[in-house]
Every structure is written in C-alpha cells, then in structure tokens.
Write a structure and sequence with these properties.
about 160 residues, alpha+beta, 3 helices, about 20% helix
Length: about 160
C-alpha cells in the first residue's frame, strides 16, 4: 500500500450545546469536503458530545472524507480536566455498520464494536491539541479557553509538524 499525506483544512470553531468545537477536515481532494457531507456530519455532532462536568467546555472534531465511499467524524472532548473523551460516527462504510454507501448518511459508531479512535490521517491534530490544552488550560493559574480555541494547527497537510 502506497502512503500519501492528505490535505488538512482548519475551520473556525463552532458552539454546539454550549461546547466549543474546533474543526479539522481531512481529505485527499484539494477542493475540500463537499458541503453536503459536512452538513450531514455536523448534524450528528450534538449526539457525540459528553455532558458538562466542570471542565472548560471544549472539543475538537476531525471530519475525514475517505478515498472510497466512507466519511468519518471523530469527536474528541476534554473532560475531567485533562482527559480526552472520544465519540465517532461514520457514513458510507459498510465495515462500520453503515446501512449504505451514502457519504451523507452518518450513523454513530457503536461503542465497543470497534474501539478505533482514528486513522493515521485523522490523528494528525491530536499532538497539537494536547499541547494547546496543556499550554492554555492546564498550565496557567486561570484557564484561557479563548487562547485554546485560537490555537489550532494551520491548514496544510496531515504530515507531522515540529
């Protein structure tokens, strides 16, 4: 299997149910993810967010349009001050129990069915988000949620950046 990096596009954060969600899109298509796929994925976002627990209400989502019929939404939410909660959804991927090949027909991935947290391209933002959370929320005397929300990877590719 030949490996190639994919495009990583960073979108403005959104607020869903009182939680701030930073957004990353991953695709092999330089034009980005089709608007109908994006709209369908984010319609499921409220179901993928955990209940508030006193931790600054922040998450980040990685929406990945695969090279086949699949589309994947991985949502990582900060809970318990320093723990990353994961929820996922998929569309158009029969291997993940999607009912059809439609990349706009998202279904929540069953917990325990596959304990996957992301593929090599979807994991690109994780290191950056960990460092940003520590830098802006955990290290200061007063958590700086706004600083965390402004601190995202730059659009480019999924390759590791120093």
């Amino acid at each position: 299997m030949a490996f190639a990096e994919k495009y990583l596009n960073v979108l403005e954060p959104v607020v869903v149910g009182g939680r701030h969600v930073k957004r990353y899109h991953v695709t092999a298509d330089p034009a980005g993810i089709a608007p109908e796929v994006e709209k369908a994925a984010y319609a499921l976002l409220p179901e993928l967010l955990p209940e508030p627990d006193g931790t600054p209400a922040a998450s980040f989502a990685v929406l990945h349009r695969g090279g086949d019929s699949g589309a994947y939404l991985n949502v990582y939410s900060w809970v318990w001050d320093n723990v990353l909660h994961f929820s996922g959804a998929a569309a158009g991927q029969p291997a993940l129990d999607c009912p059809d090949l439609d990349p706009t027909h998202f279904v929540r991935t069953a917990p325990g069915a596959r304990n996957w947290i992301g593929c090599v391209w979807e994991l690109a933002p994780l290191g950056h988000e960990r460092a940003a959370w520590a830098r802006h929320v955990l290290a200061p005397d007063t958590p700086d949620l706004a600083g965390y929300l402004r601190d995202s990877l730059l659009s480019g590719t999924t390759e590791v950046r120093a």
